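new request in #modeling-help
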Amino acid sequence: MTQTIGTQQLLHAQGLRAAYVGGREPVMACDDVSVNVFDGEVVGIAGESGCGKSTLAAVLSLTARSPLQVVGGVLEIGGKRIDLEGGEPPPRAWRGKIVSLLPQGAMNSISPTLRVRDLVFDVIRAHEPKVKRAEALDRARQRLVALDLPPRVLDQYPHQLSGGMKQRVVTVISTLLDPTLLIADEPTSALDVSSQKMLIEMLQRLVQEKIIGGVIFVTHDLPVLRSIADRIAIMYAGRIVEVSDTEELIDRPRHPYSGALLRSVLVPEPHIRTRRVPGIPGSPPSLSDPPKGCRFHPRCGYAMDICKTDEPPHVGDNERFSACWWTQRNPGKAVEV
Amino acid sequence: MTETTPLLEMRNVSRVFGRGENALRAVDDVSCTIGRREVVTIVGESGSGKTTLARLILRLLDPTSGSIMLDGRDIAGIKGKDLRAYWREVQAVFQDPFSSFNQFFTVRRLLRRSATLRGGNANSEKEMIDALQHVGMDGAEVLEKWPHQLSGGQRQRVMIARALMLRPRILVADEATSMLDASLRVNILNVLSDLRENYDLTILFITHDIGQACYVSDRVLVMRNGQLVESGPTEQVIFSPQHEYTQKLLADVPRLHEGLLD
C-alpha cells in the first residue's frame, strides 16, 4: 500500500475473551484473540457471520455492553495499558479520542431529529466541556473541507443525505478528535460500489495525513479488504485462524479456512464464469459448544485425525501466523484456492 | 430459446410515482424480453429502479404505461382467478430472510399454505419434502423447525422451496442473496442454476453485486435512473462494456487480484 507503516506498536491486544451471558451457557464469541496494529497500518478482520468479528470490534472500541461481557485480556493502546480482566470500566475519555468506533449502520448513528451540527457539537463538548459552539463547528467545517466534502452537510438533517454521504459524514464525526485507533465495523457493507470506493479513499487519506494512527477494518468482504488493508486476519468461531500480509493471504493462504473463504468470493473476473464455485460445506459451529480440537475440522477438506482432538498450533509469529496442523506439517505451502 | 414468442416480454414499460413536480419516473420506458430457461440479471446502483421493475413483473404494482406479456398475453388488468393463476406461474424470493417468515409458523405450516394455494391434497407432505430436498435440505427434519432455529442461508433456501412448490415458470429473486455470507451465497446461486436445469425454470435475478451477476447469468441488463442503459450476453456486458455508466460501475467494483486504487 502507499502509506508507510511505522515500527511503533499502536495497539497490542493480548488474549481477549468476551462472552454473551444470560442464556443457559455463556457464548464465548471472542476466545483468546490477540491483535497488533502498528503506526499507520490498516488491519482487516474478515470472517463469516457469527464468527465474532463484530464482538471483537466492540471489545477493542471499548463499547462492549451487557449482555456482552469482557472476561479477560490486556489492551495496550498508544502506550496506555488497561487490564480488562478486573472488570474495571475503561476511562470514558478514551472513547473517541484514543479509540473511536465507526459503526455499520450510518442511518442509525445520527438522530433523525437533530441536524448534523448538533451531533458534532455534542461529540466535541463531551471531551472539551468549555469549547464554544462556533469553534467546534469551525473545526468540523475545516475537516469537511479538507476531505473534499461540502460543509453544508452540517446544517442538514440525516434524511437529506444519501446513504454514502451519511456514512462519510459519520466517518468524519468519529475521527473529529483525531483518534489513535479507528475501529471500523462493516462501514462499507450497506453501500453500493461507488460509495464504497469513496469511503475507502477517505479512510486512506485520514491515515496518510496522520489524522488517525491506524485502523482495524472489520468486514465480510475480502475484495474490499484487498484494496485497503495492509494485513488481514481471518476469524472463525471466535478465534483468529490466520494473519498475513494482504497480498500473501489472498494469493497464498496457508489456513484451509482462508482458502475456502477466498474460493467462495465472486468477483467479475473471467475465471468465475468457467467453473462452479463450491462454497463451504456445512455451517459454522455453535459458539456455546464449539467442536473439540480445531474448530474448523468438521468442514475442512484437509482435516487429519489430530485435528479432531488437539488444538492446532500457531505457526509463525504474532503478526503473521496460521493456526493449523496442516500448515505445521507442510511448512511454506499454500492451500488450494 | 428456439421459441418464437419469448416467455416474458416488456414493451415500453414505465412507472411513475407522485405527480406534477414531484413525479419520479422509477421505471422509464423499459423494453426487454426474457426467454425460456434463461437466467437474466438486472444490475444497477441503489435507486436505479431494479426493485420497482421486479414488482411490476410480479403484478405487485401496475405500470403507468406500457405492457408486460407472459406468453404473448398482456397481464395488465387481470384480476381474481386469473391473477392467482399468474402468481402460480411467477414466484418471488425477496431480500430479507429474517422478515419474510411468520415467527409463529413452523416450516411445515408455511409450506402447506403454498401447497393449498396450488390445490394441494394428500400428497402435499411428500411434495414439501421433495421441494426442500431440491434446495439441498433434509426435508423431514426441516419441516418441524421454527424460523428462529434456522440460519439466514437455511431460511432463504426454505423460501426458494416455498416458491418451487407452486411449480412456477419464472422465479424473480430480488436481492435474494445480498444479506448472506459469501460462502452461503455461492450455495444459493448454485441451487438456482441447478433448478434451471432440473425444473425448466426461468430466473430473473436482481442484484447490485456484479460478481454474482457474472457468476450466474446468461444475460445482463444494466439499469440507471429507471432506464435500461445496456443489455447483452454476460461476457459482453461485463468484460467489454459499451455504455459509459456500465464502465464506471465496473471500474468501482473491488477485485481480488487487482487493486481497486492501484
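bot summary: Chain B has a mean pLDDT of 87.
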